[in-house]
């Protein structure tokens, strides 16, 4: 790869030993499904934006970012598994396809932005099945408050949110103060608050985070499930502490839909926001859209088929759209066996070859045996 280069949308990038982007991935860089009117991901993005009307929105940030932004700025250790070539797409040693919208947190906080949403396509190498695709979409949200008068700032913000939602809540009360949510997960020794944060202040921020996300999810699902169950599980991210994953109970299973937490003070300090404290979350849009619209296969989002796209053109908030499947190709199973010389073989590498050759025709790849 030395001395070779690659031109993507007018910019030329040097290639090196780290390069592993594939033609099929690069060809999708310009699709921007979340910006395509009537697309289910567009519909979901705008619904989420409506829940945060006082935020700034960033929907067109470039998915090609430095490794610095995607990992280093956020405190990822040098040996974090997410950095490996089997998990992430690199253009070269320093430039990659973002693996999450958090890659832009520092940049947006640095613009003195106190509340914002970012949406965009993110890239992770993965296996092949109906719920995994190497590109998906995330929506990042963050809100920070002045450490000094946090109590007042938060209570004003909550009043504002409740007044905005009162028209809907008069029908089905999606936005209540969430005392009904089980809060005993809040603080534990393996999910600690940061030593620089006074407990009283952090608690305000945690309550505000839970309130903001619980009310969002209830609103999105208002026509779908009267008794929506939500739970918060302790989690770990290098750039938040404490951290959680939010799950919803759907069709008999807990489904992880969001990671979130209290922003690491280091990140805020680097952005020149030393006197602030706040939360951030990252939602996976495909997961939620598949549940909301009954979309059975993640590849459908990439379809050019009118039979898919036309089903979403008349969306309005009060009507539930349930996707009606249309016939695809008849299924056809292939058994493939092969010998390996290379001990470093990784299943993701095999799936990448399959995607490059068969594109989205392949529905599922299962490893049967390995010996
Ligand atoms: N970026 C994280 C992910 O992709 C999600 C996240 C965002 C977690 C913001 C905490 C805060 O898994």
What is the fold's blueprint, element by element?
Layout: E1 5-8, E2 11-14, H1 23-26, H2 40-51, E3 56-58, E4 64-66, H3 67-70, E5 95-97, H4 105-110, E6 115-123, E7 135-146, H5 150-172, H6 199-220, E8 230-237, E9 240-250, E10 253-263, H7 265-270, E11 276-284, H8 285-293, H9 306-309, H10 347-358
Parallel strand pairs: 3-6
Antiparallel strand pairs: 1-2, 4-5, 6-7, 7-11, 8-9, 9-10, 10-11
The structure holds phenylalanine (PHE).
The site of phenylalanine has 12 residues, from strand 9, strand 10 and strand 11.
InterPro entries: aa-tRNA-synth_II (IPR006195), aa-tRNA-synth_II/BPL/LPL (IPR045864), Fdx_antiC-bd (IPR005121), Fdx_antiC-bd_sf (IPR036690), Phe-tRNA-synth_IIc_mito (IPR004530), Phenylalanyl-tRNA_Synthase (IPR002319)
Domain Aminoacyl-transfer RNA synthetases class-II family profile: 44-325
Domain FDX-ACB: 327-371
Provide a descriptive summary of the structure in words.
Residues 44-325 form the Aminoacyl-transfer RNA synthetases class-II family profile domain. This protein has 371 residues and is α+β, with helices and mostly antiparallel strands. Helices cover 27% and strands 21% of the residues. The protein has helices at residues 23-26, 40-51, 67-70, 105-110, 150-172, 199-220, 265-270, 285-293, 306-309, 347-358, and strands spanning 5-8, 11-14, 56-58, 64-66, 95-97, 115-123, 135-146, 230-237, 240-250, 253-263, 276-284. The protein has a seven-stranded mixed sheet with strand order 3-6-7-11-10-9-8. The chain has a two-stranded antiparallel ribbon with strand order 1-2. A hairpin with a 2-residue loop joins strand 9 and strand 10 (253-263). The chain is globular, with a radius of gyration of 22 Å. It starts with a strand and ends in a 13-residue tail after the last helix. The model is unreliable at 169-185 (pLDDT under 50). The structure holds phenylalanine. Phenylalanine binds next to strand 9, strand 10 and strand 11.
